Every structure is written in C-alpha cells, then in structure tokens.
C-alpha cells in the first residue's frame, strides 16, 4: 500500500486486550518533507528510551529526524537517574553483601571488608556517562539531529526549544512524537529536598549510608533502593498503604518474595498511611496510622525515600495550546497508532496509559515510527515482562493466578523450586521458584512467574513462548543445557502438564 493512501486511512480501532488506548477518528494526512527542506519528517520531544529509540528507528527508515532533549544528556530518567544507575548500585551493594556473608562458604577469606561509597558512586557514574555517550554516537551514526533544550509546542508542526546554552530555536516537523516520560509522584505534605526526604533520584546520590531509611511505597523502585541501602548497612523500613508489597505480582510469589526480603532484615508496615513527615534536627519524624484509621504511631529516620509511583510528564509542553486531549491523570490519549486527537502529533511511553517501563517505551517508539513511515507496527501489551531487580530477582510475564481466576478459566499450575536445581545448588544461591499457569484444556501457557537469581534473564524464554502461543509441554520437551538455572523453567513446565523429574 502506498504511504499516501495509508496516511489517509481512518484510525478507529483499539487494542482490545489492553483497554487503555483510546479511539479517535481523523485523517492522518500529513506527508513527508523533501530531503532538502528545513522541515523534519519526524521530531521527537524527549531523549529517553522511548524517544531516542524512536528517533534512531525513524532515521533508519529514511526519515529526516530531530530529537529534542531538555536534560542535555540522552537516555532520560532510565539511563541518568533510574534503571541504569540503580542496577549499578544494586550490583555493587550485592557484591559487598556477598563478601560479608557468602564468600567464606566458598573458601574465599579475608580479614575485613568495608564500603567505599565514593568509589561505588563513581563506578555508577562511569557506567551512565559511557552509555550516554554511546547513544550520542548512535545519533551521529544514524544522522539524527540532536537539539539540547526544553521543547514546547507553538503549533502542531512547530516546537520552540529553549536551549541549554540559553538561546532559542524553532524545530519544524511533519510528525511530532511526544516522549517526555514521567516524573516522581509527590505526596501531600512532603517536600522532597533530595537530602533528607528524597526521591529515587536523591536515593541514587546519597553521600553516606543512612543509619535508618524509611521507604514510602512497596513498589519495585522502593524495594530495589531499599535493598541497596539495606545491604550497605541501613536499617530499612517500608511503609505501604496497601495490604501487600508489589501489588502487580502473583500473590503466591509475592508472599515468598516478602519473606525473602524480611530475611534480609527489611521491615514492612503494611496497611499503613503516612499522616505527616517533619524534619527534626538532622533526622526525620513520620506520623503513621492504619490505612483504615486508628491509633497513630511515630517512626524516626535519617532519610525518607518517597517511592509512591510516577506521573506522566506533560506539563509545560503547550499541549493545551494545540488542543491535545489528556485524561485526569495527565496522560495523553492516543489510538492504536499512537496518534493523538491532533493530526501529526503522537505520544509514546510513560505519557500514555499503560505500564511505565523503559522497554515498553522502546517498543512504543519503534511501532509508532513504523506507522508514520507507512508500515505496520505492533506491541503486545499483555506480554510486557516485569522485573524487580532485588536479590533474588522477581520476573513475570502474562497473567497472575488471581487474574486467571477472575477470568473464569480452568487452569493448571506447575511449580519447581530452585532448591532442586543443580546449578543453583552448585553456586549456593538456590532461593526461589518458577510458577507456570496454563489453560487446562489446551495446555496453552497463560503466565510465568520466576523468583530467583537472574530471573530477569530467565523470563525471556517464557516471553517468547507466550508470544508464539506455546504450551507448557512445548517448553518441557525443549532441550535445556545442564547444569543451568533455566532447567527450573523446564521442570516447572513438566510439572504443569505432567510430572517433574527432579522433585
């Protein structure tokens, strides 16, 4: 189909399985700029995982592309103050914890071990800097124009950019993609100063290990950052309004996960709300009460991490000026082609409904650009894996057991503990489980949940299996190398449709 005829088609359908992309009916009638024009085919506002990937893909498809990034460093929250630096600290703190508690069991002994926090932070910063420069290199390789500054709409085809150098320029584009990501969700009565009351950004840059750390919110980010500082010596208490940690996890796995974190001396106050937070001298005092109401208690800390979620970053972009529709949560409403109600304006990643994950944003970016270029893009939001990078890690894809029950589907469950996995036992790191849910009649896999070391790597065999509609028997009859952690997934699959061998 020619690009012109495709661009004039009406966009009226939504992804039925995801329920968060909204219908619009309008003509996508914007053409592409000629090679010698000052106007871009694609302009991307935001240089995070969604934005920079979209820009590179657009350039690879032959579209003249400009990416605008306010931070002055590519990679967005994920690379600069999120996924990458947190994983660096998670790994470094895990090494320290292992040196303290596990090395002697492997015959590695030394007289003492201590934390060099500045060196740990320097390693983190080195990783971030190297990756940021790497993306700039990819921009040059693919001929993506990079503008450093804060962009806001003048019109549906013009973006005014206040550059980091202090000037201003106008970037024109036939198609403009909003990929500005998300920001920390604030809580009433809490002023984040990034010193004593910190967001995840401040938690990645503390200059000393706090004696007492309170984490508000038991989601993935809070648990990961709590793990970092807990390993380094902080007394960590997690305060959660809801009845359990990580509410998106499978319930059975979530309970095992909490027990594991408690063994690591992380404390939890569930069904609890924070009434007020006061800075007192060098410390912080929190007033707590049961979520349902009741007697108040006091909790003291040196540092409080506010980790109650994230919100779309859409303010200050001039969306109201051009009439882009947003919902009550500030998310941009788009159709299945990522197009807003304003022709030529698209949105991806954290600014639209759906999981706020870097890899989801990347998939959005590629699919969006493919649609703009007259191709067919696709993202299956039911099969976006989630990973909590603590130790052990917890990773999942597909449905939880609670979701399967709610659907009224007859199902089977197969489970296999890593205590029975030879590789896990050999490396003395055998805490965890694989849990597989499959439809009873067809044996089609509905969901896979893994708690183990490197679960974030193991989950992708399951992601691929679900993408191709595999049965548990398909995984069970696939030869897995021995000894590997992945054999636990095979054994769990065997337990789903028949019986495992090693338990």
From TrEMBL:
Positions contributing to NAD(+) binding: 217-224, 240, 309
Cofactor(s) for this UniProt protein: FAD
Keyword Calcium: no
Organism: Anisodus tanguticus
Top EC group: oxidoreductase
Statement: the UniProt record of this protein carries the keyword Disulfide bond: yes
Entry's Gene Ontology molecular function annotations: dihydrolipoyl dehydrogenase (NADH) activity; flavin adenine dinucleotide binding
InterPro entries linked to this entry: Class-I_Pyr_Nuc-Dis_Oxidored, FAD/NAD-bd_sf, FAD/NAD-binding_dom, FAD/NAD-linked_Rdtase_dimer_sf, Lipoamide_DH, Pyr_nuc-diS_OxRdtase, Pyr_nucl-diS_OxRdtase_dimer, Pyr_OxRdtase_I_AS
Enzyme Commission code(s) on record: 1.8.1.4
Cofactor note: Binds 1 FAD per subunit.
Name of the protein described by the UniProt record: Dihydrolipoyl dehydrogenase
Gene Ontology BP term (one): 2-oxoglutarate metabolic process
UniProt-listed PANTHER family: DIHYDROLIPOYL DEHYDROGENASE 1, MITOCHONDRIAL, DISULFIDE OXIDOREDUCTASE
Family: Belongs to the class-I pyridine nucleotide-disulfide oxidoreductase family.
Catalytic activity: N(6)-[(R)-dihydrolipoyl]-L-lysyl-[protein] + NAD(+) = N(6)-[(R)-lipoyl]-L-lysyl-[protein] + NADH + H(+)
More details: The active site is a redox-active disulfide bond.
Cysteines joined through disulfide linkages: 78-83
């Amino acid at each position: 189909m020619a690009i012109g005829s495709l661009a004039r088609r009406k966009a009226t359908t939504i992804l039925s399985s995801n329920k968060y992309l909204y219908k619009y009916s309008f003509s996508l009638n914007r053409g592409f700029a000629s090679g010698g024009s000052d106007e871009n085919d694609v302009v991307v506002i935001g240089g995070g995982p969604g934005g920079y990937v979209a820009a590179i893909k657009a350039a690879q498809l032959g579209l003249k592309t400009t990416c605008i990034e306010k931070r002055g460093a590519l990679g967005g929250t994920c690379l600069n103050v999120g996924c990458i630096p947190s994983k660096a600290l998670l790994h470094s703190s895990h090494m320290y914890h292992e040196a303290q508690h596990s090395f002697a069991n492997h015959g590695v002994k030394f007289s003492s071990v201590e934390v060099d926090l500045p060196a740990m932070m320097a390693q983190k910063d080195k990783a971030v800097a190297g990756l940021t420069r790497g993306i700039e290199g990819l921009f040059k390789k693919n001929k993506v124009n990079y503008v450093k500054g804060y962009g806001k709409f003048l019109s549906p085809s013009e973006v005014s950019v206040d550059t980091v150098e202090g000037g201003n320029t106008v970037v024109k584009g036939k198609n403009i993609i909003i990929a500005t990501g998300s920001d920390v969700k604030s809580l009433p009565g809490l002023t984040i100063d990034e010193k004593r009351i910190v967001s995840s950004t401040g938690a990645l840059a503390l200059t000393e290990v706090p004696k007492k750390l309170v984490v508000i919110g038991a989601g993935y980010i809070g648990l990961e950052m709590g793990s970092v500082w807990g390993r380094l010596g902080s007394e960590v208490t997690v305060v959660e309004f809801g009845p359990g940690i990580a509410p998106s996890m499978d319930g059975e796995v979530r309970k095992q996960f909490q027990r594991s974190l408690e063994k690591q001396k992380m404390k939890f106050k569930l069904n609890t709300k924070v009434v007020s937070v006061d800075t007192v001298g060098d410390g912080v005092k929190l007033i707590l009460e049961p979520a349902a109401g009741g007697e108040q208690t006091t909790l003291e800390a040196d540092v409080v991490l506010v980790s109650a979620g994230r919100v779309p970053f859409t303010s200050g972009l001039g969306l109201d000026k051009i009439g882009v529709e947003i919902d009550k949560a500030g998310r941009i409403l788009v159709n299945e082609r990522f197009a807003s109600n304003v022709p030529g304006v698209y949105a991806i990643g954290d600014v639209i409904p759906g999981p706020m994950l870097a890899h989801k944003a990347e998939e959005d970016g590629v699919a969006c650009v493919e649609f703009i270029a007259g191709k067919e893009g696709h993202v299956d939001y039911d099969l976006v894996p989630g990973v909590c990078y603590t130790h052990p890690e917890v990773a999942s894809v597909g449905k939880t057991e609670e979701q399967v029950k709610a659907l009224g589907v007859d199902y089977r469950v197969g489970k296999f503990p890593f205590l029975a996995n030879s590789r896990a036992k050999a490396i003395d790191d055998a805490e965890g489980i694989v849990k597989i849910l499959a439809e009873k009649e067809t044996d089609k896999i509905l969901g896979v949940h893994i708690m183990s070391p490197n679960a974030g790597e193991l989950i992708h065999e399951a992601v691929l299996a679900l993408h191709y509609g595999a049965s548990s028997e398909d995984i069970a009859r696939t030869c897995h190398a021995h000894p590997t952690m992945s054999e636990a997934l095979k054994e769990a699959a065997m337990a789903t449709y028949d019986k495992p061998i090693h338990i």
